[in-house]
Specification:
The protein has 78 residues and is an all-alpha fold. The protein has one domain. 67% of the residues lie in helices and 0% in strands. The radius of gyration is 20 Å and the shape is elongated.
Length: 78
Amino acid sequence: MSNYLNTFKEEIIPGYIALGNDPEKLFGFSRIRSTALRWRQRSKQRSALENLDNRLLNDIGLSREQAVKETSKPFWQD
C-alpha cells in the first residue's frame, strides 16, 4: 500500500516532495505554491479593480467606496 501511495503522489500530485509520512511535510511545497499563486492573483485583481472607472464599477455592482475598501486590503487578506 505504501509503495502505491508514493507512486500515486509522485505521478499525480504536482509539487509533491517525498519527505516522509508527515502530511505537513508531504504537501508543504504544494501549499506554499498555491498560497503564493492565490496571493499573486488577488493582487492582480485588486490592481485591475483599482483602475476601473465608475461606469464599469456600476456594471459589476460595486460602488467606488466598495472598490477602495477592497483595493486597500493587503494581498494576503481575504
